Amino acid sequence: MKRTACLAALLLCLAAPHAHADYPERAITLIVPAAAGGNADITARLVGQEMSRLLGQPVVIENRVGAGGRIGTQAVARAPADGYTIGYAHVGTLVLHRFLFKQQLYDLDRDIMPIGLVAETPNVIVVNAASPYRDLKGFIEASRAQPDRLTMTSADPGTTSEVGVKLFIAQTGAAVRQIPYKATAAQLSDLLGGHVDSMMENLPPLIGNLKDGRLRALAVTTRNRAASNPDVPTVAEQGYPDYEQSAWSALVAPAGTPKAAISRLNAAMNQALRSDSVSKELRSRSQEPLGGTPQDVQTQIRKELPKWESIIKAATLD
């Protein structure tokens, strides 16, 4: 009987996910639930590259696009909990989706565990430099004069820019027609080509075109102006004091990932965010490095839940 119990205990230990003392011993896949070239992809690659150096193993980016980030997050939730598959998440996938979608593809509290916070990012409203609209007031007034004629693009449903456009319409009375896109590059191409009138998206991928003079920024969506574009006023400054929204991101892992692996990944992530190469690059793109413990992610989620639940209900987004 005693031998049987010992054997059962041994088999249970062998079957459970575990992190070897030399973890990581092979490449780690970082699933990004967004298309290549967008803000999430650029940030994940920047942090992942430095983590690769620190961990001594490649951190390989895998883009899983669709459903506002739900497809990629579902892939993380279903991955083996062995420390070799992790995910890039954001306020959309960790908070907004709870209120936006009736059908949940995973249980955020049960299927995903946090590694640490990565960065906070502002969104920006931009128009083509050839556009007649030079400020937010003029753009909103023109949209009201001809309802649904002017267009504003955003990312997939469930992203901060998609919700941000709906919130913008609800709080400003802008009569724009929203067009969601799967990728930032496609939005940008259509805006520069004159096929759409405006765009709300994460600021970092657009900084180059703003500096080159191909785009004109009408407003940033955060409470404070962006460090990279301090001349661009906020939506709140332009007559809508209650408008505020931004994107923050985190690294996550499948539930059940060994604590030793989470600890090692968290340490590498924090060290990467503190490095000059990563922190300077993030700040040059108006992103603020965050970092911290897995518990800090949970704290951030708990803080955001009541805010976004009330905003989504008030904007009739559900």
UniProtKB/TrEMBL annotation:
Keyword entries, A-Z: Receptor, Signal
Keyword Signal appears in the UniProt entry: yes
Protein name (Swiss-Prot/TrEMBL): Extra-cytoplasmic solute receptor family protein 31
Superkingdom of the source species: Bacteria
SUPFAM superfamilies for this protein: Periplasmic binding protein-like II (SSF53850)
Region feature Disordered, mapped onto this chain: 276-298
UniProt similarity note: Belongs to the UPF0065 (bug) family.
Range of residues in the leader sequence: 1-21
Gene3D superfamilies on file: Bordetella uptake gene, domain 1, Periplasmic binding protein-like II
Native organism taxonomy: Bacteria, Pseudomonadati, Pseudomonadota, Betaproteobacteria, Burkholderiales
InterPro entries on file: BUG, Bug_dom1
Residue spans of biased composition, Basic and acidic residues class: 277-286
